[in-house]
Fold this sequence. Notes:
Blueprint: H1 3-29, H2 34-42, H3 53-57
Amino acid sequence: MDYNAFRHFADSWGLLYMFAVFVGVIVLLFLPGAKRRASEAANIPLNDDHPLEEERRT
């Protein structure tokens, strides 16, 4: 596959692929339960995790 063929393939199918990914992300955001998942993901840094065993000893 030479550069021109790759460029033609990327121009035609790359845009379609990026659009499909964009639509997929939008659909996932509006599914039922998405607010709960987003809220849980947003609170990950605030969770009180237990330190690893190695960190407890030092």
